[in-house]
Amino acid sequence: MAKSLAIRFLTEVKPRLLLKFIFGAGLGNLRALRAFEKRIKRGLPFFPPFVFISVTQRCNLRCRGCWAIGAKQPVDMERKLLQHIVSESRRQSCRFFGILGGEPLLLEWLPDFFMHNQSSYFQLFTNGHLLTRGIAAKLQASGNVSPLISIEGLEQSYADRRGTRHGFDQALNALNICQEHKLVTGVAVSVSKGNFNDVVRIDFVDEMACRGAHYLWYYIYRPSGQDPNFEDALDDAQVRTLRQFIVDERVRCKSLVIVDAYWDQYGNALCPAAMGVSHHINAHGDVEPCPPIQCSDCRVNASGDVTQTIAHSEFLRSFRERVPTLTRGCVLMDHPQYLHQLAHDYAALDSSGRDTFFNELDERAPMRCHDYQGEPIPETALAYKIAKKYWFFGFGAYG
Q1: Measured between alpha carbons, how far is residue 103 from residues 56, 168, 282, 331 in Å?
Q2: Does residue 311 fall inside a structural domain?
Q3: Domain span at residue 43?
């Protein structure tokens, strides 16, 4: 019989790390969300409860359809700027930060940064290639980091997306290393046509739990960048099948948490950026609605007021006000030309580093995403229903 997640946490994770996870990623998130609600009710300057930060534009892989590569002159975020963003966000009760790239572990100083920010908790998005035993030991010593390892499926589909079998083996090896070091660990899966039959299946979920994953985060592949690979995007029926699979697995599987950021407790589609619960800051400091939407009208720096910079962004404000009236789904996928017009209306500039983002928008055809046709599929697992209603998505952005 498979172990429950509670038993796995108690037996597979070091107690100190488990406590940091509970208070940082758990109770810390609740505090951030409650502070966010109070700011909204009181009419205080806007600041999201979750901040995602891309610390580099460099990556050791070149995956088709990735928004994070192709910059003409890739840059790394300065440590001083990252510290300023985290410190300023902490003043708004934010305690949880997503650290993205490119590949964040290309920055040799990053584990030391985690160690020096014990009052915050970090989710480290990584392809796993650079997650060595030495790095894992540093993350264990720090205790306030949960690696989220990208595993795109089984052998054939992974080779199709990444180009080599080696990449799949490296990701699994990183997962095993995290298990050895008793870290709270997640697996991220970008679901596409190419890997759909590999990852939307019960045995994949069970295998990830057996290999040490404590949560499994399903993303829907969003073709982006200069080589978007549109043909690999899910069709409407596949998105609906994925949604039903997630709902069913949340009832069946007790060994790990299954995460999505696309639907509320009733199964209605939503956009976290349009709801205002998260924004993204790239390696230059440009503040964007989310990582694939690479345009911005404001930039934070290591000495400026981060809260006021975000609060005074006309583009972000209009994004939150106008996108929910147009779609409950992803405006990048559903209405790319409207997104271009919205950016133009509020003087948002290309922040991709490629200088091609707006041309890429113009060349996109509208593609339905998680706002699929047909009736919504509501949550049936009580714990997830409560979490989504009271923890994440109870803000009424869509009326």
Answers
A1: 7, 16, 13, 26
A2: no
A3: 5-273+370-392
Beta strands at 295-296 and 96-100: parallel, antiparallel or unpaired: unpaired
With respect to residue 109, please indicate whether it lies within any of the assigned structural domains: yes
Tokens of 58: 């460099």
Q: For the chain, how many structural domains are there in total?
A: 1
pLDDT at residue 30, rounded to an integer? 87
What pTM was computed for the model? 0.94
CATH number at residue 227: 3.20.20.70
Which tokens belong to 373? 């046709």
In a domain, residue 221? The reply is yes
pLDDT at 94 (0 to 100): 94
E strands in the chain: 50-54, 96-100, 121-126, 145-150, 186-191, 215-220, 257-259, 278-281, 287-288, 295-296, 349-350
Instruction: Return the pLDDT at 166.
Output: 46
Q: What is the pLDDT of residue 167?
A: 64
Question: Per-block average pLDDT, block size 10, for the chain (399 residues)?
Answer: 90 96 89 91 92 96 89 97 97 95 97 97 96 98 97 52 56 95 97 94 96 96 92 96 97 96 93 93 98 97 95 97 94 96 97 96 92 95 88 53
Q: Is residue 352 a contact partner of residue 67, using CB atoms and an 8 Å limit?
A: yes
pLDDT of residue 368: 82
pLDDT at 164: 40
